[in-house]
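Practice set, problem 2.
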Amino acid sequence: MNAPIDLTGVCLETDRLVLRTWQPGDLEDLYEYAQVDGVGQMAGWKPHTSIEESRAILSRFIESRDTFALELKETGKVVGSLGIEPLSIPLPPAYDDMAGRELGYVLGKAQWGRGLMTEAVGRAIAFCFEEAGCRLLLCGHFVENPRSRRVIEKSGFRYLRTGSVTLSDGVPHEGLFYLLEREDWLRLPPAHP
């Protein structure tokens, strides 16, 4: 069951990032990282080919109110996104009464390898469990994306299952899905985002 999420007015911080709602003025930053080859493919979408394509995605982010812009504190530039999205796969019956969401994220290629996404995911998890009423979170990655797997594992998720996901390109992709329950998260050592 999906937990209700509305990020309107929510602003979270880590040491290096501000997680905030998207604004119309973020269009150039979104297009800058979304047009780079290799970025979108890791999240299941093709590089943006025009600023109009980015404008449509930005409008969806703003309207859905479930996706954060990831802003670098040092520059004020948006370098990625982190969605707290509806669950994309059915969960086993044991979870039927547990409200949850699914985390999905992307980071501009210039920022890879700096630990920024682990920082952002850790803060989003705390928000979901402490403020948004989630009892579980789902997260997944494509087989060909080991960077995402490392973020997921560092964040305390445990493997749930492998499955096929068909995206907008109509092609099935093999994905691995992981689950984190609030009670398990509470037992993890404190993170230092």
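Problem 2, part (b): a different protein.
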Amino acid sequence: MDTERGTCDRSRTTATIISNIFHPLMMPTYAASVILYGNTGFNFISNSAKLYMTTFIFLSTVLLPITVMPILKYLNLIGSYNLDTRKDRIIPLLIVAICYMLCMFFLSPEIGFIFARKVFLSAAVLLVLTVSVTAFWKISIHLAGLGGLSAIFLNITLANYGDLTRYLTATILIAGIVGSCRLYLGAHNLSQILTGFVAGFITMFLMTLL
């Protein structure tokens, strides 16, 4: 009995760690890292500009939203940091959408940064759509993020800006793993996971066409 409980605890811990590694907040940073440092048509951008972009994206879309969470908890605007309920998700998602818009406006509009601005605008739109759905249904934000990431890699490959096929394949495999983890943790059902991935993919694909 203890052995089964220990195995179950380890499995839940592993599923939680995987969910955190591929948390929706990390998707912009992962996307920027692959696009800027991978073998793509954006290699002409200087290393200093690449570092500036990835650092700015990480600070704006990861650290800033995390910093705001204790304030929301103190003001009783969220019930827990896990955002388990649909109500808890609405305000944090809107804050993240605002952070994406800030990234869009502050990134340089020079050639080479245009696509990044389109990505953040698309991500903000996706989050607003997610918030709208969240008001009555708990769609998977994890899978929406991975679906959006897959669409970005596919668009870049189709536009011959670089061959990101291996990253696309890896992202789809990761989506399957993360989806399984979310199911195991009881965070979502299968329809919420599939809808999240499809919604993220379609939204980002259509809005980031090169």
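Answer key, part (b): The chain has a mean pLDDT of 86. The radius of gyration is 17 Å.
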